[in-house]
Amino acid sequence: MRAMTPLLLLAPRINETGLHLLTHARRRGLRAHTAVRWEVPAELAGLRPAHLYGGPLFADVAAGALGVAPLEPPADWLAGLPHELTARQVTCVALAEARRLRRPAFLKPPTDKLFAARVYPDGSGLPGPDALDDDTPVLVSDIVAFAVEYRLFVLDGAVRAASRYAADGGLAVSPEVPPDALAFAADVLAAGGLPSAVVVDVGRLADGTWAVVEANPAWASGGYACDPEAVLDVVLRAAGPADALAPGDAAFARAAPEVVR
Question: Fewer CB within 10 Å of terminal CB in the chain, N or C?
Fold first, then answer.
């Protein structure tokens, strides 16, 4: 069965960005719904084409039922960038190796929020093998302090929407984005290695140096003060029909979780 209009399904416990997407999707004529549980409602499961917005947990339970291919940046994308774009050393290692770290570092899971992303005095505070598999990827970064940070919604290698979201480590949302942030973003995007629809965060250090903060899936990212219409454009591409996936995006499709019965 095919829907006459595209479906956008949002995760339960919708956030402010989700509310904006719901409103703007309906204004476009899309069939937009918020799930009441962490599953696809039976009456919507057969509707195509479909898109989704929510965190990794929702993507894992809903993407297969909706025929959606959620796009995400590679786990080691940040670690593969040159120093002039990161302004710090960043490596991507297995969790077993990260646990052996004996110096302070900023540690985070690349995409899924499997443990808190923060500065750790060493690797001993990371989840043990009873909680997470030893081969779980971990980004290990030198500690830097960003004076200001910006969120960029990117489509086909170009910034479609941007917003400040933090200053001096605290939430500071503003639609004002300086030209030098966008100029630096162009250099970052020229490095490649990302899906056609993605979120990239960049920031300026206290000494004025620009650096990449991280990249995230657009279908799981907050929009802050970004233009909701442009955010919707990026989200629809970032989590759209698997059978319409562009060849260049195939390598960035999130793997379906293994189901143990």
Answer: C
- Residue range 167-177, pLDDT digits in tens: 999 999 999 99
- Which segments of 191-256 are extended strands (E)? 197-205, 210-216, 239-241
> What is the pTM for the complete model shown?
0.94
Provide DSSP, 20-57.
Answer: HHHHHHHHTT-EEEE-SSSS--TTTTT-SSEEEES-HH
Question: What is the per-residue burial (b if ≥16 Cβ within 10 Å, else e) of 34-47?
Answer: bbeeeebeeebbeb
Q: Which residues of 147-178 are buried (b: 16+ CB within 10 A; e: fewer)?
A: ebbbbbbbbeeebbbbbbbbbeeeeeeeeebe
Q: Taking residues 7-27, report their average pLDDT.
A: 96
Rounded to whole angstroms, the Cα distance separating 258 from 261 reads 10
Cα separation of 88 and 119, whole Å?
Answer: 14
d(CA 194, CA 192): 6
The SS3 of residue 230 is helix
- Residue 70 near residue 253 (C-beta atoms within 8 A): yes
Contact 230, 210 (CB under 8 A): no
**CB-CB contact of 50 with 5 (8 Å):** no
Q: Could you tell me if 241 and 67 are in contact, meaning their C-beta atoms sit under 8 angstroms apart?
A: yes
Q: Which residues contact 130 (CB under 8 A, 6 or more apart)?
A: none
| The token pair that represents 45 in the structure block | 């499961």
Residues in the chain: 261
Residue 255 has what DSSP assignment?
A: P
